[in-house]
Amino acid sequence: MRTRPRRRGARTVALAAVLTMTGVAGMTAAAGAVPAGAAVAADEAAPVPVEAGITVPRVDGMGEDWINGADLSSVLSLEESGVVFRDEAGRPADVFDVLADAGVNYARVRVWNEPFTSADPALGYGGGNVDAARAVEIGRRATAAGMRVLVDFHYSDFWAHPGQQKSPRAWAGLDLDQRVAALKGYTADTLRAMADAGVDVGMVQIGNETTGGEIAGVQGWDSTARLFQAGSEAVRETLGADVKVAVHFTNPERAGQYAAAAKALHDRGVDYDVFLSSYYAFWHGSLANLTAVLDQVATTYDKEVAVAETSWASTLEDGDGYPNVIRTAPAAYPASVQGQALAVRDVMQAVADVSGGRGIGTFYWEPAWLPVGPPDQVDANWDLWERDGSGWATTHSQEFYDPTGALGGEWADAYGGSSWDNQALFAFDGTPLESLRVYEYARTGSVAPREVDAVEQPRLTVVASDPVPLPGTLRVSYTDGTTEDEAVTWRDDPSWLLDPGTYTFAGTTAGGHAATATVTVLADAGQGENLVVNGGFEDGAAPWTGTGTGYTISSTNDPYAGQRSTHFWAAAPYAFTIEQTVTGVPAGQYRLSARAQGGDAGSADTMQISASSGISSVTADFRLDGFANWQHPQTDVLTVAADGVVVVSASLALSGGAWGSLDAFELVAVPDTTAADTAALRGLAERAAGVDRARYTADSVAALDSAAGRADFVLRAAAPGQATVDGAAAALTAALDGLVALPGTTPPTPGPTTPPAPGPTTPPAADAPAGTLSATTVRAGGTVTLTLTGMPGERVEVGIASVYQRLATAGLVDGGATVTVTIPADLAPGLHHLQVRDGAGTVLLALPVTVLAADGATPAPGRLAATGAAGAGLALATALALVGAGGLLLTRRRRAARTAPGRAGR
């Protein structure tokens, strides 16, 4: 049970200066030192920071009416599906009361016109099935908890966002005048119902993420401005001048976009008070840019500004069997409770930094969208999602996406559950995470004990012909909010990669922390049709468009190939975005790449390419590393749904004097791959693990250990290529054949080492528990890392036997986890087994490990003392090796999620 945070004593007052910092995502400090950039002395008037489990620097500049908001639109459906929210003591509680107790003072609720089928209003589209009546109920409960309410009109029957602003079906066929009247009447009727129910409406949002000015199925500012104004008039006439009118846009990272939208509204006389922005640090650029673009709107047009949507992940675990939007380690902050709190706090500070107090607050998007059941009950979860609309979308929403049946029965979306459960501010069991207290801590600051929170897990995407630029340092994050860059030594060799696939490199930081880097090797970029039109700018500017300054599309300066590029330079700081919309893209998976060169960029400059389809988005950062030193950014894979629309862009924010060029944009389908056959390599690894190294020369054993390390690297890869597998098998065969016996010993007669001919075979069941070790020989008191796959449930426990001792627990992401454990220093030397158990104590897997005497002890007779090379190179335990070593492997069938193909996202 967590207790309320305590006020800190005098010994911590000096740390108050630390807690007034802004932009803590990149702050660095040695243990016990004040981070760079902190004030030299604490402000005597500043609140005293509190002791807590997480560190949250105090936010400066929050006014008395500052908004700590949360979008709670899915809550009724979640409760109907049996989700129970709890207070900090674990007792069932009303979620609105829990949030209010944590400092949330505003609830945002979306409103859809008719989020159900035309034939049967009992068949909801999902996402909470929030029509006007349900929005009123949510607003009434929020008001009862002491919150004000922001009403978010989508003016659609289901999700409205960039690229998807569909007209409500009831308004189909209306001309513009009729549609203006319908929007005004619908807005007024809904707000009147809220007022009659006693809902304390403080703000009304006219449209949701109406980037480009599109709303209610209408495009073009001259037309849509009339719709925005009609909504504004309905608010003024129904609720009076004290209720704020807001507009809402997204993609602040696109240069000039907010300035253009605000100007379009101003030029057409649209009456509003608040300019709202979505900001997700995963996709939307720097916090400094967010402040800058909001400040420009606020000061130019005398508007208030706020962030209407933000979030961060507290874990990479999946809670309900439906894939999450954020499934891999993000870059800006750790995927942890500490990282989540800092991400929210930094957005608060970015808004508070807007000039003249015009920044008025933030809203967290769906902090309570929890699983309706665990991942191993996904079939039961599916029934609840369909019945109650408690997931992202039900199959009934096919009517919304494809009202005419033009898709011919092809699913238009990824129907199913919550893709947001790992970004909630509650644990999967409904208990609030400490990150929910960020709104309270932001007023005073909080300080936590200094412990390692996370080690950066970089992800790189390269083509087969490119080098693998593994980083030389990694960011280590601590629970006191500080970070340190530590040098990292990678154990695995990039030269082992011989063909496309997905691989995990293991290493250790200078501080002794285990590290991993995921590398995806793609087929040569020249393979496959490039769907970007005029990707090399050879045919002029079209269909590219741009915003911002300092760039020229289809310039003759410094192309990568051909005669043209997009060239950029300016003497003063500048920013720009170029983009094009690609249509008719077949549903499937794609990646975007480009070429970039240049120089003189500042350390805080940002450069990024991006591809988005609906609300799904992938990005890749790059740098300017000198003239003609062409960088080759590659995005992660983008899933394109049936609408076939992809927006391709590049956004750069640069210092004055920075220069360069962009060229050769390519959007190429990612081909399906055949699983590599690893059976032969596994057999060789098993043989190598059984070699009695005491019988052979040191040089030949070292060669064996090196080849065994290569084999382990390939066998623990998520999706190795066949050539890479065969290369590892050939190296291990040669090492086994090359063992040289010591004089006077008679080694056992070796068996054949020639592997069977490679080729695709049926892979083992994906749901069979399996694991590998970073080393199969380790000293007592040393560490070893387990890489686990195919595990059922949400968490596993790792321990060591013969007499069982629990060593660690770990959460699972898609059945997998990487766990580093310390072998007990008093464990007797000999053969032991690392056991992996589920929550009920059932042994799922047992991996043999040879434990040597601790440093300073006498090794057991006949056993080889561990060396750094052996510990790093010998990592051979696999699921198949367990049989020969007396290991235990239990399989357990997992039920597959019944989701239709398509994208998963918010």
Describe what this molecule looks like in 3D.
- The chain is of the alpha/beta class and 906 residues long.
- 20% of the residues lie in helices and 25% in strands.
- The strands form seven sheets. An eight-stranded parallel barrel has the order 3-4-5-6-7-8-9-10, surrounded by six helices.
- The N terminus and C terminus are likely disordered.
The unreliable regions are 1-44, 753-766, 857-906
Q: Could you give the distance between the termini?
A: 32 Å
Q: Percent range for helical residues?
A: 10-25%
How many individual β-strands?
Answer: 36
What is the global morphology?
Answer: globular
Report the β-strand fraction as a percent range: 15-25%
User: What is the oligomeric state here?
Assistant: single chain
Report the biggest beta sheet as strand number plus sense, adding barrel if it closes: 8 strands, parallel, barrel
Radius of gyration equals 29 Å
Average pLDDT, rounded to a whole number, is 85
- The number of distinct helices, counting runs of at least 4 residues, comes to 16
Strand order of the largest sheet: 3-4-5-6-7-8-9-10
Structural class, please? alpha/beta
